[in-house]
Amino acid sequence: MNNIEKIKRELVNNKLSALMITNPVNRLFASGFPSSAGVLLVTERDAWFFTDSRYIEAAEASINHARVQLVTNNENETYYDRIKIILDENSIKSIGFEDDTVTYSGYQKWTEKLGIELIPVKSLISSLRAVKVPEDLEKIKKAQRVAEKSFNEILPLISTEMTEKQLAAELVCRFLINGADDKAFDPIVVSGSRSSMPHGTPGDFKISKGFLTIDFGVRLDSWCSDTTRTLCVGTPDNEMSKVYDIVLKAQETGIRFARAGIQGSDVDAAARAVIEDAGYGRYFGHGFGHGLGLEVHEAPTASKTSADTLQSGAVISAEPGIYLPGRFGVRIEDVIYITENGCENITNLTKDLIVL
After folding, report:
1. Are 87 and 209 contained in the same domain?
2. Residue 227 forms beta bridges with which residues?
3. CA angle, 171 then 177 then 180, to 5°
4. Is residue 355 part of a domain?
5. Which pLDDT does position 165 carry in this prediction?
6. Whether residue 317 is found in the same domain as residue 199
7. Cβ(157)–Cβ(167) under 8 Å?
8. pLDDT, tens digit (0-9, with 9 covering 90-100), for 47-87
9. Among 55, 90, 110, 205, which is 20 to 30 Å from 289 by CA?
10. Residue 217, Cα to own-chain centre: how many angstroms?
């Protein structure tokens, strides 16, 4: 079943006559076609992909499960006009919309132009995107392999004579050389005392002795990877080694606990308990993990406040950390694929502490 058919099924389940998809990532998920402009309209029986002249030829060649139509944006040829015609022809009086991405002004404009009720359906597509089919998983694995190859290639280059920003640039360069379409996000490269910043920005600082945290991912065929490794430049002291081992134990505990049917908050709690029992609980401020797919952060989540239940087919990160302000930080991140009986770790990099 293709993704548009899945959406049609969800329309029936949610008693919706139609759904208007304006979010570019959701359009990509539904149609398989990436574009920065367009609207996908799905009803119980049919689907239309509206776009402008920049994308019309490529859309016609790529989209198989929706009628592709050109919008000229001339008078009476706007997205609003074309969609209203179809809604009127099908006697549709209300339509679902993505309330998590449509702005309030956008909501007002669509309501005015279409003249019908707009119904928020925030979780409809995100819940579908949360479950990956085998083909999706293989694409994420392919992205992981490119990222991992690139990471291994920069290890011999790391030196206290280069800056964090230079190392980040070397990593992104390797991504592209090894076949990635782009970085999935700006790499995090922080060293020494700066490694205590979970999302620190690489700066014009020479790489320091001590921990070096590198958080990186690529985008390939629209799918993302995400990995973090904490290395040590020079010999770690006793507390650094201790903290590294605690984070690793916490991560492995959460991974063992993760399986279909488990609350994301319970997975987080299992890993968090290891860190809390070791006396470092207040230094672990973020969640255990987040969904990964067409975006780096998507459903489901595994955090203290998560209300998500993990489903078979979900892909999430596993990334606990301990961050001692002004001293050092450790994060170890893998990506796991949730199954009925547990999970598959799809990250192939060593988790032994690499000492440079």
Report:
1. no
2. 216
3. 80
4. no
5. 98
6. yes
7. yes
8. 999 999 999 999 999 999 999 999 987 777 899 999 999 99
9. 205
10. 10
pTM, to two decimals:
0.94
HSE-CB at 128 with a 13 A cutoff on CA atoms is 22
Q: What are phi and psi of 303, to 5 degrees?
A: -140, 175
Integer Cα distance of 22 and 49 in angstroms: 10
What's the CATH number where 289 sits?
A: 3.90.230.10
Residue at which a domain ends, from 112, 129, 146: 129
List 335's β-bridge partners, or say none.
317
Q: How many domains does the chain have?
A: 2
> Which pair of structure tokens corresponds to residue 259?
């399986």
Same domain for 116 and 168, yes or no, is: no
